[in-house]
Amino acid sequence: MTPDNIKILIGIGAYLIFAVGIGIWYARKSNRNSDEYFLGDRGLGPWVAAMSAEASDMSGWLLMGLPGVAYFTGAGEAVWTAIGLALGTWLNWRLVAVRLRKYSQAAGNAITLPDFFSNRFRDEKKILMTIASLIILVFFSIYVGSQFITFGKLFGYIFGMDQYFTAMVVLGAIFVLVYTLIGGFLAESATDFIQGILMFFALIVVLVGATIRIGGLSVVAENLRQIPRFTDLFGIAVPVDEAGVAVSQAAGNLQGIVDGKPLFSEGASYGLLSILSCLAWGLGYFGMPQVLLRFMAINKVEKLKQSRQIAVTWCFISLFVAVAIGMVGRALLPDLLRTAGQSETIFIELTSLFFPPILAGLILSGILAASMSSADSYMLIASSAIARNIFGGLLTKKISDRSIMWIARVSLLVISLFGIIIALSGNDSIFRVVSYAWAGFGAAFGPLILFSLFWKRINFPGAVAGMLSGGIAVVVWKELVSKLGGVFAVYELLPAFIISCLVIVLVSLSTAKPSDEIVREFEAVKNA
User: Fold this and answer.
1) CA 378/CA 335 separation, integer angstroms
2) 515 by DSSP, 3-state: which?
3) C-alpha–C-alpha distance, residues 141 and 158, integer Å
4) Buried-most residue among 299, 454, 476, 514 (CB within 10 A)?
5) What backbone torsions phi and psi does residue 261 show, to the nearest 5 degrees?
6) 305-351: per-residue pLDDT in tens?
7) Cα 289 to the center of its chain, rounded Å
């Protein structure tokens, strides 16, 4: 390992120590009871609520996955995905935040999403709670694994050797586990707030540095014009190998290079169906537990407007800067990264190229910040599903608060192990791994959240059927239907979301109306 690599590690190490320190700082307050451990006793201020929601949402995908897509295939998929996410963020904060904050407190002071579903529909048998908890476990395990892939890529790059990937996945998992285990929701939210700031400035600094280094925007534009359909919003660049075959991660072929120039075909059109697939990413926000929990945790409903302004501004700027980094990276380093998986290191490559090692280490901590802020949220929510909802709500009638917290800690360890297994399973594209889990939550929870908050006719059978149909539709569409190609190749979140909505309406209208008690509570929240 070179002296520069050691300096980079020093910068990253300083940040990791700081993150664990925050966990220790909040340990005493967060460990008094499970309400504080899992939801911070609804005590988040507007800035922490906003920044922690966005940081936990975006993950390492923002600094690696999205720039990687922009680097490899150009503006088409990356820009439309960013637009979908930006619109989804705004709509979620605008439509869901206030109503969910009020309703979660009115519905038995629910502190987890499964709690809310169960209380909202007076589910005495805990059926909704159990289904929601199992969905959280499945898809958050996938999510956690995607963040651990980020750790492996980052440190594997620093050491310059692929054999460090496994060791760095495990080490990164241990760091996240430690400060989440110690400090709970408050530690997680406080670190997410700081990590959100770090991610934001890391993106800005790298984009400005890369643009200056290449000679300005005019040079970037000129270089990218030479790649067919790279800057076309209604087209997509297609990297090919030396035989002219499109580069596929599954096939394992590398993009060809001739005289220092990467090889592309004439490109392909990016039609309406593809654009809708990208925009459909925005639908996922309505079902994201890590974001919805921040709505539930803010200390005052009146502060949600300020939080919305902060969150939406951060999100819009960060998304489009991330896309720009990938495109500027292709203009500056056109022949460096030759697969979709390799392309996701473009942020790392640019950082190491432009900045002194210690400063590069601090900037690269932005990647760790992005991944840690998401992994800690996923792990804590999944552990709360096991401890509070499955053990505390379903399997045992009487269980102490102390026992719930110990079960949560053991669950954190188990979830970390599952995440490590997924990270080492062989799929090294962060973008693709995240897209699967995002669709799962968006389709299973998104329609149910919207109908629960805004349609008083939804009933318990409709809620169960909608949640199950959404989650199952994602898996079936992804694994079977999408392989038919053509119109069926749409991103699985879109058809699954529609299916869930239709099922909720049809089942609710064909079964008994909700009780008067449930309707009165709905009206009370609506008019509050």
Assistant:
1) 36
2) coil
3) 26
4) 514
5) -115, 135
6) 999 999 999 999 999 999 999 999 999 999 989 988 889 889 989 98
7) 10
Residue 10 has pLDDT above 80, yes or no: yes
**Neighbouring residues of 355: CB distance < 8 A, sequence distance ≥ 6:** 205, 209, 363
Q: Which residue has the tokens 């911070």?
A: 40
Q: Comparing C-alpha atoms, which of 76, 521, 110, 466 is closest to residue 287? A: 466
**How many whole angstroms separate alpha carbon 496 and alpha carbon 473?**
5
Instruction: Tell me what pLDDT residue 178 has.
Output: 74
Report how far residue 378's alpha carbon sits from residue 401's, in angstroms, rounded to the nearest whole number: 21
Helix 493-510 / helix 460-479 crossing angle, nearest 10 deg? 150
Tokens of 3: 């002296």
Return the exposure string of 301-333: e unless at least 16 CB atoms fall within 10 Å of the residue's CB, then b. Answer: eebbebbbebbbebbbebbbbbbbbbbbbbbbb
Which span out of 78-92, 159-173, 334-348 was modeled with the highest average pLDDT? 78-92
**Which one, of 239, 200, 167, 212, lies nearest residue 63 by Cα?**
200
Look at 33 and 55; give whichever has higher pLDDT.
55
Domains (range + CATH), the chain: 3-527 (1.20.1730.10)
The two tokens of residue 181 are: 């285990």
**Which of 150, 22, 60 shows the shortest CA–CA distance to 370?**
60
**CA 380 remoteness from chain centre:** 14
| Strand partners of residue 261 | 258
Question: 27 is written with which tokens?
Answer: 């340990």
Q: Are 29 and 279 in contact (CB under 8 A)?
A: no
Six-digit token string for 313: 């501004």
Structure tokens at 90: 């705004």
**CA-to-CA distance for 412 and 398, rounded, in angstroms?**
22
pTM, entire model: 0.84
390 CB-contact burial (10 Å; exposed 0-12 / middle 13-18 / buried 19+) = buried
- How many other C-beta atoms are found inside a 10 Å radius of the C-beta of residue 462? 25
Q: Give the pairing of strands 257-258 and 268-269.
A: unpaired
Residue 114 above 80 pLDDT? Answer: yes
- For strands 268-269 and 235-236, give the pairing: antiparallel
| Amino acid letter for position 195 | Q
Highest mean pLDDT (candidates 5-14, 80-89, 293-302, 404-413): 80-89
3-state secondary structure 360-378: HHHHHHHHHHHHHHHHHHH
Residue 160 has pLDDT above 70, yes or no: no
Decide: helix, strand or coil at residue 239.
strand
**Burial class, 485, CB count within 10 angstroms (exposed 0-12 / middle 13-18 / buried 19+):** exposed
Instruction: Name the strand (E) or helix (H) holding 236.
Output: strand 235-236
Count the residues in the chain: 528
**Which amino acid is residue 178, in one-letter code?**
V
Assign 268 to helix, strand or coil.
strand
Cβ-based neighbours of 210, under 8 Å, separated by 6 or more: 325, 328, 329, 332, 350, 354
Q: By three-state DSSP, how is residue 77 classified?
A: helix
What is the distance of C-alpha 61 from the center of its chain? 7
